[in-house]
């Protein structure tokens, strides 16, 4: 089943040179504690995130996040640095830094991801990847799991078209 990924939006760049930070914001229908579980529980992460986690991310300390693309797997060291349930989760992912901020928004959650990329990267592809992941996350949280979409499999769900839209949206870092 093809995933309806919607349209590009809710993203901006901060910083003009490396490292730069992608700020990605979404409104989710579930309250922060429910979203928090999806961000920290390895079984839930494995259903929507671009990686699998070796352990629960709800405690500080070292772990491994494994990038998965079909049969290819790449273990990356990670360090969970900040855990303030259900509001702030921050951890390294290889050289990058992910900071998830959850705020109540009515009955749901305003999710803000700040992904700081140390290595030069294609910001439009990074935004598109997170966009697809969060669409899959919302399906999971709604009780209608789609199944994880990672790596090259995203091309089957409109990745290239969505990436072109993000490239236009993110042309000028703020």
UniProtKB/TrEMBL annotation:
Gene3D superfamilies: 3.30.530.20. InterPro entries: ASHA1/2-like_C, START-like_dom_sf. Pfam families: AHSA1. Residues 31-141 form the Activator of Hsp90 ATPase homologue 1/2-like C-terminal domain. Belongs to the AHA1 family. This is SRPBCC family protein. It comes from Paractinoplanes aksuensis.
């Amino acid at each position: 089943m093809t995933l309806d990924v919607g349209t590009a939006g809710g993203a901006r760049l901060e910083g003009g040179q490396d490292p730069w930070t992608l700020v990605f914001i979404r409104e989710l229908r579930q309250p922060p504690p429910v979203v928090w579980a999806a961000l920290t529980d390895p079984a839930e992460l494995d259903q929507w995130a671009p990686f699998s986690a070796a352990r629960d991310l709800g405690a500080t300390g070292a772990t491994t996040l494994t990038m998965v693309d079909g049969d290819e797997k790449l273990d990356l060291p990670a360090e969970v640095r900040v855990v303030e349930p259900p509001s702030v989760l921050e951890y390294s992912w290889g050289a990058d830094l992910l900071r998830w901020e959850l705020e109540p928004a009515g009955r749901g959650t305003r999710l803000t991801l700040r992904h700081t990329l140390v290595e030069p990267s294609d910001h439009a592809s990074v935004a598109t990847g997170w966009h697809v992941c969060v669409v899959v996350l919302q399906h999971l949280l709604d009780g209608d799991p789609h199944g994880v979409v990672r790596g090259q499999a995203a091309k089957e769900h409109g990745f290239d078209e969505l990436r072109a839209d993000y490239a236009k949206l993110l042309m000028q870092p703020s």
